[in-house]
Amino acid sequence: MTKEERINKFSNVLSAVNDVGWRDAERLIQENISSLDEDTFDDVFFGKDVYPNLIAKAGLSSWIAEKVLIAAIYKYRHKSDRILKECVISRAKELILSRGLYSNVSAVDYVARNGHGEAQYVAAQLCSVEALREITDAKLVKVRKVVFQRLGPVECLDLMLEDKMAEIREEGVRAAPMGYEKLNNMTKEIARGPFAELVRKISSEYLPMLLANRNLKNKWIANALEARLSSEDDNNV
Questions:
Q1: d(Cα 216, Cα 196) in Å, to the nearest integer?
Q2: Is residue 65 in a domain?
């Protein structure tokens, strides 16, 4: 049987699953996946865009697609490490990581370092500290948030304060000590969240530099800065 014939056969299996009610779908999936040969598995799950295209062609719901994927992964779980390195199906990698189907925990570090999207996000929650230190600049915001949360501000405070996402900068300012030197470079902060925290934390001598910031259009923030300035004046009397 050629590769094309194998893929077409698997496509027919998916269509058949989609034609039955949800009560029979899981039984049919188990029956068909249990007889899935290794060559077809490789064709479908290691071929570029083959699996997502077949799912789309069959019009499978996300629930059925998930059941198919889980059944296939468990049948060929000895290929899990290869899936983590070579498969383009991010959800397959997520399932392997979250269910511990890899042969060695070093596979988690591999995905953390080399993966992307949701798979890297899952790996970041499980990987070693050494791997975390290599992905502080991950593209996905929630991956960076996991990295900073796991490593902590003692190790990552400056990176948090310099991050391009306001939410992470806000967490950094909140975790920073009063008068922390790096805060003095943030007087032009334009995001409201980090700026509101900055008003409470920045060195007193830098408070006047905040007076020109556009965030003071917010009455609550303006009042907070005024209160801080008054407090500093009182302390200097």
A1: 9
A2: yes
Residue pair 225/216 in contact (Cβ under 8 Å)? The answer is: yes
Task: Dump pLDDT digits (tens) for 203-229.
Answer: 999 999 999 999 999 999 999 999 998
Task: Report helix, strand or coil for 223.
Answer: helix
* pLDDT value at 236 more than 70: no
Which is more confidently placed, 120 or 34? 120
Q: How far is CA 177 from CA 144, 197, 202, in A?
A: 21, 12, 9
Residue 176, domain extent: 153-237
Give mean pLDDT, residues 58-87: 92
Q: Is 84 exposed, middle or buried (0-12, 13-18, 19+ CB in 10 A)?
A: buried
For residues 128-165, one letter each, b for 16 or more C-beta atoms within 10 angstroms of the residue's C-beta and e for the rest, the string is: eeebbeebbebebeebbbbbbbebebebbbebbbebee
How much is the pTM? Answer: 0.85
Structural domain ending residue among the three candidates 24, 59, 75: 75
Q: 155-196, pLDDT tens digit by residue?
A: 999 999 999 999 999 999 999 999 999 999 999 999 999 999
Instruction: Examine residue 172 and state whether it is found in any structural domain, yes or no.
Output: yes
Last residue of a domain, one of 23, 52, 75: 75
118: helix, coil or strand?
Answer: helix
Q: How far apart are CA 159 and CA 178, in angstroms?
A: 17
The count of structural domains within the chain is: 2
